[in-house]
Design brief:
A 4-stranded parallel β-sheet has the order 1-4-2-3, covered by helices on one side. Helix content is 41%, strand content 13%. It contains 5 helices and 4 strands, in the order ββαβαααβα. α2 runs antiparallel to α3 and α4 packs across α5. It is of the alpha/beta class.
Length: 123
C-alpha cells in the first residue's frame, strides 16, 4: 500500500515506512519531529523540472510525463522498482513538503509506484 502525506502532518501508526521524496529538507522541521525512515533525494524531480512545474495544475500532466522520463534517464528505475516491491509487502508513505496536496512529486511518484507494483509499468 502506498500513502501520500505532507511531512508536516503528525506521523500516524498507519504510515508504515515513512519516506521523504523531496530534494531539500523541509523548512522548520526537526528530524525527530519528522520521524522519517528514509530520505530518497534522488527520487525527487530535478531542480529545473521542479521550477518549470511550479505547482501549476495546468502543467500537471506534462510534469508527470517529464518526471517519469527523468527517473528512467537518471538511472533511478531500480530504486523505483525496489520501493514498489517494498510497498507490496508493507505500507509505504511518501512524504512531501509542498502546500499543494494534489499536484506534487510525491503524488506523481505514488502513481508510478502503484503501476510498477501492479506490474502495469516497466520503464
Amino acid at each position: 500500500m502506498i500513502r501520500v502525506r505532507r511531512v508536516y502532518d503528525p506521523p500516524e501508526p498507519a504510515d508504515g515506512v515513512r519516506v521523504l521524496v523531496d530534494r531539500l529538507w523541509p523548512r522548520g522541521l526537526s528530524k525527530a519531529r519528522a520521524r522519517i525512515d528514509h530520505w530518497y533525494r534522488d527520487l525527487a524531480p530535478s531542480d529545473a523540472l521542479r521550477r518549470w512545474f511550479g505547482h501549476d495544475p495546468a502543467r500537471w500532466d506534462e510534469f508527470r510525463r517529464r518526471y517519469r522520463e527523468e527517473l528512467v534517464a537518471a538511472g533511478r528505475w531500480e530504486q523505483v522498482r525496489a520501493l514498489a516491491a517494498q510497498a507490496r509487502r508493507q505500507t509505504v508513505t511518501l512524504l512531501f513538503a509542498a502546500k499543494d496536496i494534489r499536484h506534487n512529486n510525491a503524488v506523481a511518484l505514488a502513481e508510478i509506484l502503484r503501476r510498477v507494483a501492479a506490474g502495469r509499468q516497466r520503464r
